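Morning!

This is the sequence you dropped in the shared folder:
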Amino acid sequence: MTTPLRVLGTSWCSDCTRSKRFLDEHDVAYEWTDIEADESAAREVEAHNNGTRVVPTIFLPDGTILVEPSDAALAGALGIAL
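The structure's back. Tokens below.
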């Protein structure tokens, strides 16, 4: 995938750490933004999650948005065989 994913999350979130580890292990390019350091990113997460800060919120280049995806759901969305 040539266009990087956008991963919005927090430094303390275990699901964010797991998703970033999965992406790293599969050489998937992504841009990480900590929503606690970037208020516009926090508002974007809230806009896509009914006003809540559910993370990770992952934006794929095709417009798909994944919220707290399992590794299997992330693999499926990216076409990665597990």
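Headline: The chain has one domain: 5-78.

More detail when I'm at my desk.
O.
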